From TrEMBL:
Pfam families: Molybdopterin (PF00384), Nitr_red_alph_N (PF14710)
Protein name: Molybdopterin-dependent oxidoreductase
GO molecular function, one term: 4 iron, 4 sulfur cluster binding
Record InterPro entries: Mopterin_OxRdtase, Mopterin_OxRdtase_4Fe-4S_dom, MopterinOxRdtase_cofactor_BS, Nitr_red_alph_N, Nitr_red_alph_N_sf, Prok_molybdopt-oxidoreductase
Length: 491
């Protein structure tokens, strides 16, 4: 029926009634309902993920209509884990769920931006200098100009520019820096390969050809443990989050799992059903703290002291007083503690730790012909110098030798953590001490800024015929902790 008459004030349809006039049959326009029905209509479904600055790689179903993303939902077709582990799905987080909105948001960055004060200085400099490098130099050599744009950092003030203008500025800045300080003073970070292989390759190749410094994932992000690759040689090459379910004791330290690893947080909570104890170490009552059995709340800035206290207990109780095969074998096999470090002499007769000794430093490279300059050296329990598998020289060397088996030169070997008992002399090694620095927030303990501690040292003959004192990383760690080993050490 035509709804034209319904629009007139004085013309009304007489509605049909039922139930003795208590009910009325309505014929109202319901076209408005199409608006919310169309909101969830789609032409096709595609699989995608939210890979910008996130390595979660969660699988999502993306609903597309007329070439536009309308909405999205988590995929539920992940492969089944083994029967005693929870499934991975559904993986996702609120940030990912809002991604389709962000695509068309006014807040999305679509054009290059630059600080207004800097671009004004740059444009003015180009008017005075035809050479862009000289134009940039005029800014850098003027302290007032430098200060004018640097002092407003962190306060916004960005305006839109174009790539041609900014590429010229970047190139001029790089050339001036190279001419003034050298190419290694140009440092940059490309997106990790997991995010964009093209972006990673482009930026890394540019810096490499330039002679610049390529920053790693660990240099750029502040929530990653740089000590991990320094000790183990890998950037947290750890198992997947499902492996948390195999643990019986978990310490969450430096990672707010529900917030920064939302898709995997369910493993952290589900493992408590099987009796696993979880501990959170955070100054504030964060999201991960509420999911744990115990919450340790150290004062801000003291978590490193807490970690060193734990290390002191482990080394003293399970390495010195009551040696534990589990702890000792773990350090022997999975860390750099058995490796030997060169000692460099000081004017007062003591030594300071230098670099690790390599196979190439010794006569005939200890039989290593492939990358001996990248292979570290240790002493086994028989007192022999060995080149254990697993160092970087093996990784980029012979096929099949990149592993952590207790093998050296093709034979089984057991590395010695300490040189104590195999040492030639006991020598003093100097360590810096920072605990005596006055601080308004923490207590200081006065000691000499340099503490000389006694270590077992072995003398090795190098390929050039000189004698070099060496010590193991394990002995250096124990000395740095100030643990008494019966070497008449007053410090």
């Amino acid at each position: 029926m035509s709804k034209l008459l319904d629009r007139f004030r004085y013309f009304k349809q007489k509605g049909e009634t039922f139930a003795d006039g208590h009910g009325q049959v309505m014929h109202s326009n319901r076209d408005w309902e199409d608006s919310y029905r169309q909101r969830w209509q789609f032409d096709k479904i595609v699989r995608s993920t939210h890979g910008v600055n996130c390595t979660g790689s969660c699988s999502w179903k993306i609903y597309v209509k007329n070439g536009l993303v309308t909405w999205e939902i988590q995929q539920t077709d992940y492969p089944r884990t083994r029967p005693d582990l929870p499934n991975h799905e559904p993986r996702g987080c609120p940030r990912g769920a809002s991604y389709s909105w962000y695509l068309y948001s006014a807040n999305r960055l679509k054009y290059p931006l630059i600080r207004k004060r800097l671009i004004e200085l740059w444009r003015e400099a180009l008017k005075q200098h035809s050479d862009p490098v000289l134009a940039w130099a005029s800014i850098m050599n003027d302290p007032q100009k430098c200060l004018s744009y640097k002092q407003v950092r962190g306060r916004g003030g960005f305006i839109r520019s174009n790539w041609q203008e900014l590429n010229q500025l970047i190139a001029a800045a790089n050339v001036w820096t190279i001419k003034t300080y050298g190419p290694d003073r140009v440092a940059g970070f490309s997106p990790i390969p997991a995010m964009s292989m093209v972006s990673y390759a482009a930026g890394t190749r540019y810096l490499s050809l330039l002679g610049g410094t390529c920053l790693s994932f660990y240099d750029w992000y502040c929530d990653l443990p740089p000590a991990s690759p320094m000790t183990w040689g890998e950037q947290t090459d750890v198992p997947e989050s499902a492996d948390w379910y195999n643990s019986s004791y978990i310490i969450a330290w430096g990672s707010n799992v529900p917030q920064t690893r939302t898709p995997d947080a369910h493993f952290f909570t589900e493992v408590r059903y099987k009796g696993t104890k979880t501990i959170a170490i955070t100054p504030d009552y964060s999201e991960v703290a509420k999911l744990c059995d115990q919450w340790l709340a150290p004062k801000q800035g003291t978590d490193s002291a807490l970690a060193m206290a734990m290390g002191h207990v482990i080394l003293k109780e399970f390495h010195l007083n009551n040696p534990s095969d589990y702890f000792i074998n773990y350090c022997r096999r999975y860390s750099d503690m058995p490796m030997l470090v060169m000692l460099e002499p000081r004017d007062d007769g003591s030594y300071v730790p230098g670099r690790m000794i390599r196979a190439s430093d010794l006569v005939d490279g200890l039989g290593e012909s492939n990358n001996p300059q990248w292979k570290t050296v240790a002493v086994n329990t028989a007192g022999e110098l060995v080149v254990p598998n697993g160092s970087i020289g093996f990784r980029w060397g012979e096929k099949g030798k990149w592993n952590l088996e207790s093998i050296a030169a093709g034979t089984e070997t057991e590395l010695s953590l300490t040189l104590l008992g195999q040492h030639d002399v006991v020598a003093g090694v100097a360590f810096p001490y920072f605990g005596g620095i006055e601080n308004p927030h923490f207590r200081s303990v006065k000691h000499n800024p340099v503490l000389v501690r006694q270590l077992p040292v072995k003398n090795l003959t190098l390929v050039d015929g000189n004698t070099c004192p060496v010590v193991s990383v394990y002995d250096l760690v124990l000395a740095n902790y100030g643990l008494d080993r019966g070497l008449e050490d007053e410090n």
